[in-house]
Structure formats: C-alpha cells, structure tokens
Amino acid sequence: MAYQILSFLLDVIAGLFGGACLLRLYMQYQRIGFNNPIGRFVFALTDWIVLPLRKVLPAIGKVDTSSLVAVYLIELAQFGLLWLLMGRVGGLEMLPVLAIFGVVRLVISGLIGLMILYAVLSWVQADSPMVDVIDKLCAPLLRPWRKLIPLVGGIDLSPLAFLVALQIAAIVLGYLQAAVLR
Question: How many of the other CB atoms lie within 10 Å of CB of 136?
Fold first, then answer.
C-alpha cells in the first residue's frame, strides 16, 4: 500500500512539473505569449529546470529543446525513484525507455486534459485571458479534425473525435510499453 501511495504522489508531482514543461514547449512552439495567468504559472513551475538547461541546450528552430529535455529528466527521475523504492538493483538500462514512454503518456494525458477543458469552456461564455490561451492551444490541434467532421446541428464534434483518437493512442502506448518491457 505504501508503494502505491508513493507511486501515486510521484506521478502527480512528475505530471505537474513535466506537464508544465510540455505546456511551455507547446506555447513557445505556437508563439503564444506568456503574459497571462497560464504563462506565469508555467514559468513559475518550470524556470528552475528549464533555465539552467537552456544555457547548454540551444533551441532547434521553434522547438525549445531545454523544455523537452526537462520533461524527460523529470520522468527519468520519477522512474528512477520508483525503481529504488521497489528495491531493484538490476535492469537500470530500462529506465531511459520507461522515461520515453512516460513522456509520451504525459503528452497524451495533457492533450486529453486540454481538450476536456476546452470543451467545458466552450459551453459557457467565459470572458477571460485563459479562455483565449486555451483556444489558441487547441485550434491547431482541432483544425485537421474540423476539415474531416462537419458541424452536426451547429455542434462541433471535432474535440470529441480528437479525444477518442487520444484514448486509442493511450491504449496502443500501453500495449507497446508492455511489449517492450517483456
């Protein structure tokens, strides 16, 4: 039971900080300003790891490699701590692979959360800077889906279709991870 509790807490902490690093990466990629509540929150959670990495890792085009490496290091630390808590000594060569799966899982989970938040906010007429930021984050992701799926009675089903695709991706990722770990 103690292991499950510690594993859950590590997952929450790594998810929060790693997700903030991914959000920083995506906001910079989309050239979304950080002068809003979401941007300030992301900076507050990620500056401690991204800024030192930025001194040694240059950006590649629009991709902030320091944010990407930061989320990988956070996932690597999470799996390393879990490995130690389990009392394992060998098999450390699998930790980098587990961290990659962790980053992909975090991307999928983050996108699912973002889409759910976008859908909920679309139901209410909220006038907030956060709504504008979330709309800017979701619009590029939903654009291809909107080309494929017409409005049904004035309702945009593209977020639902994207959520279904993300759930399928999560299932496939789980099977791939299980296959690699065998």
Answer: 14
pLDDT in tens, 109-142: 999 999 999 988 888 877 787 889 999 999 999 9
Q: Is the pTM of this model over 0.90?
A: yes
Instruction: Kindly list the distances between the CA atom of residue 66 and the CA atoms of 17, 28, 47, 49, 107, in Å, as whole numbers in the listed order.
Output: 14, 12, 10, 8, 16
pLDDT band at 91 (very low <50, low <70, confident <90, very high): confident
- Which pLDDT score is estimated for 122? 82
- What's the full length of the chain, in residues? 182
Work out the angle at residue 35's Cα, subtended by the Cα atoms of residues 28 and 125, and round it to the nearest 5 degrees. 100
Residue 10 CB partners (closer than 8 Å, separation 6+) = 78, 81, 82
Cα separation of 117 and 111, whole Å? 10
Q: Is residue 20 within 8 Å of residue 42, measured between CB atoms?
A: yes
Return the structure tokens found at 175: 């099977």
pLDDT in tens, 5-31: 999 999 999 999 999 999 999 999 999
Q: Which two tokens stand for residue 118?
A: 């976008």
Got the DSSP string for 51-83?
Answer: HHHHTT---BTTB-HHHHHHHHHHHHHHHHHHH
Distance CA 40, CA 52 (A): 18
